[in-house]
Amino acid sequence: MPLSQENRIQMAISAYRSKKIQSKSRAAAVFGVPKTTFISQLNGIQPRSETRASGHKLTAVEEESLVKQLLNADKRGFSIRPEFLRGMAQILLHERTQDPTAVLGVNWASSFIKRRPELRTRYNRRITYQRAKQEDPKVLKQWFGTVHDAIKEHGIHEDDIWNFDETGFAMGLCTTSKVITAVERSERPRTVIQGNREWVTIIECVSSKGISIPPVVILKGKEHQAPWYQESNLPPNWKLTNSTNGWTTDEIGLKWLKQVFDPFSKPHSTGAKRLLILDGHSSHQTAEFDDFCKENAIICLCMPPHTSHLLQPLDVGVFGPLKRAYGKLVEGMMVAGNNHIDKEDFLYLYPPAREAVFLPRNICNGFAGAGLKPLDQDRVLEKITFQLRTPTPPLLVEGSISSAFETPQNPRQIDRKVQSLQRSLQKKRTLSSSPVSHIQHLEKAAQMAMNMNLLLQQEIKVLRAEGECKIKKKARKRASLGNDLFLSVQEGRGQIQQLDTQLNEQVDEPTAVPHQRASPRCSGCGTIGHTIQSCPSK
Question: Which residues form the HTH CENPB-type domain (predicted)?
Answer without folding.
Answer: 50-122
